[in-house]
């Protein structure tokens, strides 16, 4: 009996010790998590305070964006997209920003929302402050989804100078500073040479190809994305994806095709591929028809000027919606 009581007490004490150990571990873990959260909150607040103090130093100073570039220093992407500086801003207080809207052609006031690590929302963009100096500052543009930063392979940087520095030190103006620099020009020359040599290296020109009818048997309309498009289109689509609606009258038969084509540096159109996925049984016949339309009607009825970037002509891709009417 005594042995049984001793065994029971020993086992009960063991269980109690385990419970106490688990409880102590849980408490320590909760305290650790609490301390980490408090430390993170304190760090975030310190960063917010630091950023606000930096903004206090430039409060009321007017800045103009002079350069927008990728992290390789270029303002052009391999596909031909051009980054264009356009912001003019000032901070009337540390919690608000006045920013010029090119669309509305006036200055708008918006709140500044601070976050961690020198990150804050200015008007319609999430930015990370890289530096603020006496006469300049720089931001990195962030892609944020649901307050979560989406890390991207390529970053965009916005560099600003004070208006006073531009006028009185550089003795320049925004029109001059906004021009692509020597690096951009050298890059586009290299890309144009590559695109004109290798067909699949074609890239979009900031001046897209111009298609003009030289026969009354064809009509040409270029699709234009309006400035305030409600369907998700962007203004840069007008040159990244130049789309043309062509109507051919008195064609050999009625037809309707959507496809892409190359326009080389001399303005010569070459069929590329269908925009519509084709079943195996239609690939050969439809491709032959689209090539025939391109090499026949389009080359005969159209006068084509090639795409240009920085005034340099180069091979590019156009999107075509071609409709033919036999009796119209």
Keywords:
single chain; 328 residues; alpha+beta; Lipocalin; 2 domains; 5-stranded mixed beta sheet; 18 strands
Structural class: alpha+beta
C-alpha geometry:
extended
How many helices?
6
In the residues, how many domains can be counted?
A: 2
Which regions contain 5 or more consecutive residues with pLDDT less than 50? none
Total strands: the figure is 18
What's the story with the biggest beta sheet? 8 strands, antiparallel, barrel
Q: Element order, helices and strands?
A: HEEEEEEEEEHHHEEHEEEHEEEE
Draw up the topology in text:
Layout: H1 2-57, E1 63-70, E2 88-93, E3 96-101, E4 106-114, E5 119-122, E6 125-132, E7 136-145, E8 148-150, E9 156-162, H2 163-169, H3 174-177, H4 182-197, E10 210-213, E11 218-222, H5 237-240, E12 243-249, E13 255-263, E14 269-274, H6 280-301, E15 302-305, E16 307-309, E17 312-314, E18 316-325
Parallel strand pairs: 12-18
Antiparallel strand pairs: 1-2, 1-9, 2-3, 3-4, 4-5, 5-6, 6-7, 7-8, 7-9, 10-15, 11-12, 13-14, 13-18, 16-17
Provide a descriptive summary of the structure in words.
The protein is α+β, with helices and mostly antiparallel strands and 328 residues long. The protein folds into two domains: 63-179, Lipocalin (Beta Barrel), CATH 2.40.128; 200-325, no CATH class. 33% of the residues lie in helices and 34% in strands. It contains six helices and 18 strands. It has helices at residues 2-57, 163-169, 174-177, 182-197, 237-240, 280-301; strands at 63-70, 88-93, 96-101, 106-114, 119-122, 125-132, 136-145, 148-150, 156-162, 210-213, 218-222, 243-249, 255-263, 269-274, 302-305, 307-309, 312-314, 316-325. Strand 4 (106-114) and strand 5 form a beta hairpin. The mean pLDDT is 84.
């Amino acid at each position: 009996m005594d042995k049984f009581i001793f065994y029971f007490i020993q086992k009960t004490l063991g269980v109690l010790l385990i419970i106490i150990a688990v409880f102590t571990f849980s408490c320590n873990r909760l305290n650790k998590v609490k301390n980490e959260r408090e430390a993170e909150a304190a760090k975030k607040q310190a960063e917010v305070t630091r950023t606000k103090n930096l903004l206090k130093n430039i409060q009321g100073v007017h800045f103009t964006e002079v350069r927008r570039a990728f992290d390789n220093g270029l303002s052009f992407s391999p596909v031909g997209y051009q980054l264009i500086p356009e912001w003019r801003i000032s901070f009337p207080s540390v919690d608000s920003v006045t920013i010029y809207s090119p669309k509305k052609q006036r200055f708008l006031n918006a709140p500044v929302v601070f976050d961690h690590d020198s990150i804050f929302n200015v008007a319609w963009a999430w930015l990370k402050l890289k530096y603020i100096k006496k006469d300049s500052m720089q931001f990195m543009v962030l892609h944020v989804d649901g307050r979560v930063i989406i890390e991207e392979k390529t970053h965009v940087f916005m560099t600003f100078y004070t208006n006073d520095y531009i006028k009185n030190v550089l003795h320049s103006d925004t029109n001059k500073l906004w021009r692509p620099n020597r690096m951009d020009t050298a890059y586009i020359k290299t890309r144009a040479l590559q695109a004109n040599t290798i067909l699949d290296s074609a890239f979009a020109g900031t001046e897209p190809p111009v298609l003009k009818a030289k026969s009354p048997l064809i009509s040409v309309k270029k699709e234009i994305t309006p400035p305030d498009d409600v369907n998700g289109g962007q203004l840069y689509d007008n040159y990244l994806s130049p789309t043309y609606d062509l109507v051919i009258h008195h064609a050999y038969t009625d037809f309707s095709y959507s496809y892409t084509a190359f326009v080389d540096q001399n303005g010569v159109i070459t069929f590329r591929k269908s925009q519509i996925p084709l079943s195996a049984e239609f690939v050969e016949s439809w491709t032959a028809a689209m090539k025939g339309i391109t090499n026949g009607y389009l080359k005969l009825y159209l006068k084509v000027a090639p795409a240009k970037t920085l005034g340099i002509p180069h091979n590019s891709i156009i999107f075509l919606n071609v409709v033919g009417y036999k009796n119209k």
